[in-house]
Amino acid sequence: MTEKRSHILLVCSLICSLLFPLNAQNYKTGVEEKDYIAYLFAYFAGNKIEEEAIHFAISENGYNYMALNGNKAIIDSKSISSSGGVRDPHILRCEDGKTFYMVVTDMTSHKGWESNRAMVLLKSTDLVNWTSKIINMQNKYAGNEDLKRVWAPQTIYDPEAKKYMVYWSMKHGDGADIIYYAYANEDFTDLEGKVKQLFFPLSGKSCIDGDIVSKDGKFYLFYKTEGHGNGIKLATTNSLSSGKWLEQEDYKQQTKDAVEGSSVFKILNSDTYILMYDVYGKGTYQFTESKDLENFSVIDNKISMDFHPRHGSIIPITRKELETLSSRWGIPKGFPQIGNKPVRTDYYADPDIIYSHKMKK
Known about the structure:
single chain, 361 residues, mainly beta, 5-stranded mixed beta sheet, 4-stranded antiparallel beta sheet, 13% helix, 39% strand, globular
């Protein structure tokens, strides 16, 4: 009886697999690249207290940006921070494709560059409505009596830990700025576990403004050499929490001016990556591009912005997300009406090309 029953179960399983081939292993979550039609730029505007806030801008192509909300803050900094201001917004789309995490430095520069002890974690499902939680590192973790600053937090999904890693730089006493990390809790309202050092530079000198992107199974960490060179360097690893990084000696910025706040994003439906950074001494932003994330060339002639950003980050967005943002803060005057163009879901081609062919324009 047992052998006959097993045979029947096996036959039933085979029949089910033929009738219902889209099983759990084939199910995809998140958003496919072809479904994105625009870009969202999160940034802060300057060192005046009214400028130390989260601002948004949008782009149809990743090169030309226009500010939302008349370049005014999209969130009141006083409502989410302990200092009254926030800087360095980093925005991330979660693995589920529909949740967004944003982390910012809880700081106002007029109080001094060694005045802050906290970061803010924010969460949203529509890019418009955000919940937030202040994490004061000095109060949360013992042994931080001489903590001087907590700067530029960012978030990335760690596939080994299956958790979201928050990483940032801290300076204690007269020591160097060090990039640390901890994992966020499931609700993204707190950090859990111990704080550990993420990056161990061979020089032992200060590193800030870490920005990590993944490509072909490798993680690329771009960081600023704070106080010694004031430029962008690169280190790579196959495991985020391993502590093992391969450093490159050359600087990646394509200017002799001091820079900070680098961020990398990918141009949709291409193999091109953009490395952008804040040329803070001149009040300008520079964009560079690369195919391999190691060699970069300046593309400032391709870039336009109707605002002056400071340290920020860029993610791709869908038609629905663009419509949600524009419903809340309006579409900037002169912004291309890409929301009205048909986007074929069965092609990966540029929507503008599809539109021109369909409408014969």
